Amino acid sequence: MFGREILGHPAAALRREWIVTNGAGAYAMGSLLANAPIRKYHGLLIAALEPPLGRTLLVGGLQANAQYGSETYALSSFEYSDGRLSEGYRNLETWQLDGTIPTARYALAEAVLSQRIWMEDGANTTYVLLTHERGNDPINLNLRPLLTERDHHDTTVEADWQPLFGALANGVLMTTPTGTNVRLLSDQATWQSEPATWVEEIYYREELERGYPDTARLLQAGEFSATLQPGQSLTLVFSTEAEPSTAGLQALAREQARQAALLEQARLLQKAPDFIKQLVYAADQFMVRRAVQLPDGSTWQGWSVIAGYPWFSDWGRDTMIALPGLLMATGRANLAADVLRTWSHFLSQGMLPNRFPDVGAEPEYNTVDATLWFFQALRTVYQATGDIQLVADLYPKLVEIIDWHERGTRYSIKVADDYLLTAGEPNVQLTWMDAKFEDWVVTPREGKAVEINALWYSALRTLGEFATLLGYDHDVERFRLAAEQVATGFQRFWSAEHGYLYDVIDGPHGADPALRPNQLFAVSVAHSPLDDAKAKAVVDSCARHLVTSYGLRSLAPHDQHYLGSYGGDLKTRDASYHQGITWGWLIGPFVSSVSKVYGVEQARSYLQPFADHLRDAGIGSVSEIFDGDTPITPRGCPWQAWSVAELLRCSVELNSR
């Protein structure tokens, strides 16, 4: 719980944000400063009009006031382009997460008014529940929704954007110029229409920090008003659905029951610390339904993973890395199998898509490692469930992947003479270190990358195990011999001079000795190509130079190319993205590696600092990145799937050992 020590100080409250999601790509989002928007992504309804994408901001905020006795109290805050900050935050007494439901309490003299915000699972519907919790007199409320229609990546709409409004029995219907219908409803309040007017320019401070346009205008067209007696509640509903329920207390009970079931399913984490249990709720926020068009023309409803909120879509690499933690650690193996089946439908030339773009239906195939992580994810699911049918169904696709890699696929991804995997062409980025600005690839890794070949070796060993399970004896020998060749060739990554692994070998400039965390995967993968002495040396080198409180630096500080701070415009940010910035998800392979080399208790200690981080940035979740330099400030995406997932995966792994 947060009190006035944070909520009463704008700088502290504005750096902390909340999010609620609907399991279909939609979300609502705001800051702890009485929901003051600090990003273009903030608002009460960002609907996924083409689930899980097509995300469109429709309700950008709520101007709210309460009258108690003879005094009027603001319940919301906004920053404006002229520097003003409206003062609703001054009345905010406490704020906390109930599961993932933001719960704020405002002090109005001796009265307390609570506010809860959540979304209906699977629907583009946001609920705002206001309850008169304490006080002897009624509270009068005036609530003005702020409206717009824009892609969530944008900040402007056309000046002549004018929706149509039609009266409903319990609110109003807004029809936008593109034909989107948005219902603004209440179970208790009365809607009063007014001439539509643009509010003053709202200032998004985080967009200025990121080098993007930082102001926008929103439309108001009326207000809800109501009087709440002590103990009474009022519900606002913002929805693109045809018949959303306005029964807020019932909707709240449904969502609380759904979230309670998530924790009940996560039996492997029952004895975990409270901050790890909170991540069970956080993990659920990334899961989204994705429809798949089957060859016979029918549609199958599958599942995928949003890589991070608010700006990422579903990415192949992130999905496969995150799957063990998001789903297997939380007891949702059925969804894990669905995710694997969903993505398998998009295999092309032996490759999984890198991502599904926000605009357009065609996936992008420009990653070398997403497909290799697919093997690791399937192995995790099988080990936990014994689902031999899933393995049998996907086995032909796994063999097809190996076949394509042996003969060569996109972007010169192919098996070399030593059976190591080489990849890359000028001006493309294929590994997870994929920052690119215009034609500048910031971290070019053409050649044989260390983590790619660790994954390649493990994939071949895993496929050999599956062949044995399924009785495909001819494949058993094929993949055994291939893995042996890779294990032999992999020893060329060892640098006796440096005492750790090269990051890339056989690249345009030879071997790259930059000390990066990628080599950890040669220790942490299911099948390691390293002996114990080399594994220990890798762990020691990374521990000494790369570990921070919240993950691992992407480059050692002593490197001449190291950049330890993240910020500025897109080019400046991309320049540092993989050149020293700390990545939260990398705590996973590091902890797994430490556990193998030094034991469980030492490994477990590296997770504890994240308990404090859950009270910063994206509350209750884990950020994408952090500065490489102290104080290791959170940056980038405040809610990142693989950051959350790796903490969950490691917790289960350490407990099992």
Explain briefly what this protein structure is.
The protein is of the alpha+beta class and 657 residues long. It has 18 helices and 36 strands.
Kindly describe this structure.
The structure is a single chain. A hairpin with a 2-residue loop joins strand 29 (504-507) and strand 30 (510-512). 32% of the residues lie in helices and 28% in strands. The longest helix is centred in the last third of the chain and has 21 residues, at 450-470. The mean pLDDT is 96. Helix 7 packs antiparallel against helix 8, helix 8 packs antiparallel against helix 9 and helix 8 crosses helix 10 (450-470). The protein is elongated, with a radius of gyration of 26 Å. By secondary structure, it is α+β, with helices and mostly antiparallel strands. Strands 1, 2, 3, 4, 5, 10, 14 and 17 form an eight-stranded antiparallel beta sheet that branches. Strands 6-7-8-9-18-13-12-11 form an eight-stranded antiparallel beta sheet, with helices on one face. The protein has a five-stranded antiparallel beta sheet with strand order 31-32-33-34-35.
